[in-house]
Amino acid sequence: MADWKSGLRRVLYPAYEARMLRRLSSDQIPQHVGVMLDGNRRWARAVGRDTAHGHRAGAANIEPLLGWCDEVGIKVVTLWLLSTDNLNRPERELAPLLEIIEEAVASLADQARWRLHPVGALDLLPASTAEKLKAAEEATLEVDGMLVNIAVGYGGRREIADAVRSILLEAAERGTGLEELAQHIDVDLISDHLYTKGQPDPDLVIRTSGEQRLGGFLLWQSAKSEFYFCEAYWPDFRRVDFLRAIRAYAHRERRFGA
Question: Out of 38, 201, 203, 236, which one is annotated catalytic?
Fold first, then answer.
């Protein structure tokens, strides 16, 4: 019975996906999509494998996702691969995870299809990991393709703190006093010092695995974002799930926080 159902899905889903694509117009497509790639460890437990296997399965699903984003015309994607809290995991789990992330990012860079931009507190990462992320960015600077933010060692609170710290340091270099600086601090100034400065804020944030919380992802930038929560663990997230998220976004009446 299970094989019969699986075969039926393989026949029907392509037609279903094509119909969803046809019904999406260009003005319904988000410019910037943030994705919380959640559920790798739970997926691994569900299939009776170790955590590293789950992370590798999740890493293998990144390239398909970016292809789907290209297909519908998204301009910017932010992938949350590792939070600042994750850096506190035991070394026996963290070291393999960082290696998997390094390999995944290097593979994306080798394809030269997307511009990669690491976002996060790179100073908190092992030097070798930070260097590989920066190398991937350098290698794709001239690529004429979708911008992909790689959030590793990322936390929304840390990002805001880093933005404020940057503003203070710049003011100190200019000799600007605190009272004068206080008069000039506003939303735009802080936005201009975030990791994503110069980019549009995310229109849509997708989180997999059934969890319905931000967990610190793009705290500042997502103030007016739409959210879509998917039950599938990240390694099981399919093209049809992605298109359903885009369709749900297209059907919403955006109020931009009002």
Answer: 38
**How many other CB atoms sit within 10 Å of the CB of residue 122?**
17
What is residue 14's predicted lDDT score, i.e. its pLDDT? Answer: 81
Torsion angle of the four alpha carbons 73, 76, 82, 83, in this order, in degrees rounded to the nearest 10: -130
Q: What is the DSSP letter of 201?
A: P
Query: Residue 145: which of 59, 250, 71, 245 has the closest Cα?
Result: 71
Structure confidence by residue, pLDDT tens digits, 34-69:
999 999 999 999 999 999 999 999 999 999 999 999
- Report, as an integer, the average pLDDT of 116-125: 97
86 is catalytic: yes
Strands of the chain, DSSP E:
32-36, 76-83, 115-119, 147-154, 204-207, 226-229
> Distance between CA 124 and CA 67 in Å, rounded?
30
Backbone angles phi, psi at 207, to 5 degrees: -125, 130
Contact, 207 vs 16, CB < 8 A? no
pTM as predicted: 0.92
Considering the candidates 61, 70, 86, 241, report the single residue annotated as catalytic: 86
Report pLDDT digits (tens) over 89-102.
999 999 999 999 99
Domains of the chain, first to last: 29-250 (3.40.1180.10)
State the burial class of residue 247 (Cβ atoms within 10 Å of its Cβ: 0-12, 13-18, 19+). Answer: middle
Q: Is 40 a catalytic residue?
A: no
